[in-house]
Amino acid sequence: MTLPAGIYCPIVSFFEPTLDQQLDIPTHVRHVQFLGRAGVQGVVVQGSTGEAVALSSEEKKTLIKSAKDALEEIGSQALVIAGTVGAQSTRQAIELSRDASQAGADYVLVLPPSFYPAAMNPDSILGFYNELASASPIPVIVYSYPGVCSGINMDSDLLIRIAAHPNVHGVKHTDHDVGRMARMVRAREQLAPFTVLGGATDYLLGAAAYGVQGAITGSANVAPRVCIKVFGLASTGRIEEAKTLALEISRAEWALGKGNILGTKYATVYANGYPGTAALCRRPLPVVSDATRQHVEQECSDIIALERQLEKEGYDGRLKSRTNGKTNGHA
After folding, report:
1. Active site includes 210?
2. Residue-range definition of the domain harbouring residue 123
3. Which residues of the sequence carry a binding annotation for pyruvate (predicted)?
4. Concatenated DSSP letters for 150-177?
């Protein structure tokens, strides 16, 4: 199985406004189905955007299964990718991968352990991914994100060594290093099946020029069709047509970034008309400030309008059907 090119959405997790903040499954299902109808290639549950470090093992399995069921209910072929954010041992990462597979996930997205960063040299990291990939019942996507890994920054040489394992099928570059992505693309001929994905969409045109095959981007929570259309245009060489939309993505993504998880979650709720309480993060994270709300509303208004227009036009965002490889949507 090859991880398809395209736009993937790392979804936020929703919680009820109660003392124990149980999972808000109805809003979770509603959001997953919105993304499935928009045509994303897949959703990532329990990633960094999904507050994975605040979730129990049972909650993680619940989110995976309910996402899978929600997509099947609407006839979507979108994949379910499960993050193993927070695993600090090979044993724990293998256990989470097996749990994810049993719950219905198609892939796991895996950060390197980072609690003891000084001990995590390249050989330790390579050994971790090799052992995990050999034991995991589903393919592994490497998650390169120094910002949440005590600064561990896997260079292209190490990533290429990790990618040589036949059960490692891709990489998400939240290191945002386009040069590193280009080197991974160059090495793909020796790594197939292997898919190189960015970790954001504000540099999508530049990454696509090097052959990067899409992105796992939080902006897709707000405007999935816009993100997909930009990638579709860029992938077919229609750069000038893509620029206007790409500039709006860049503007909105900066607003989400400035607000961190609070901004991303509020933007998701605001853009899609979900209940206001769905913007709550798990404590001790604070309630989103009025200033962040206002900034998000101001900076995301245009991209939300573009998304609603594409939705009204019936744009489903699908680039290709995974069953027959034929064009099954708009570019």
Report:
1. no
2. 6-312
3. 49, 216
4. TT----HHHHHHHHTSTTEEEEEETT--
Indicate the helix (H) or strand (E) that contains 143: strand 140-144
For the chain, how many structural domains are there in total?
1
pLDDT tens-digit readout, 116-166:
999 999 999 999 999 999 999 999 999 999 999 999 999 999 999 999 999
- Spatial CA neighbour of 106 closest among 184, 33, 8, 27: 8
Rounded CA-CA distance 96/57 in Å is 8
Structure confidence by residue, pLDDT tens digits, 48-96 = 999 999 999 999 999 999 999 999 999 999 999 999 888 999 999 999 9
- What pLDDT is stored for residue 327 in this prediction? 35
Q: Is residue 260 part of a domain?
A: yes
CA atoms lying within 13 Å on the CB side of residue 290:
0
Domain assignment present for 268 = yes
Stretch (H or E) spanning 85: none
Q: 121 Cβ partners below 8 Å, 6+ apart?
A: none
Q: Is residue 319 part of a domain?
A: no
Q: What CATH number should be reported for the domain holding residue 249?
A: 3.20.20.70
Query: Could you tell me if residue 293 is inside a domain?
Result: yes
Name the catalytic one among 143, 145, 203, 270.
Answer: 143
Tens digits of residue pLDDT in 235-256: 999 999 999 999 999 999 999 9
Q: What is the dihedral of CA 71, 145, 272, 82, to 10 degrees?
A: 20
Which pLDDT value is given to residue 230? 96
Residue 203 designated active-site: no
Structure tokens at 273: 């008309």
Query: Can you give the pLDDT at residue 1?
Result: 77
The one catalytic residue among 60, 61, 68, 172: 172
244 in a labelled binding site: no
Sign of the torsion formed by the C-alpha atoms of 115, 118, 124 and 126: positive
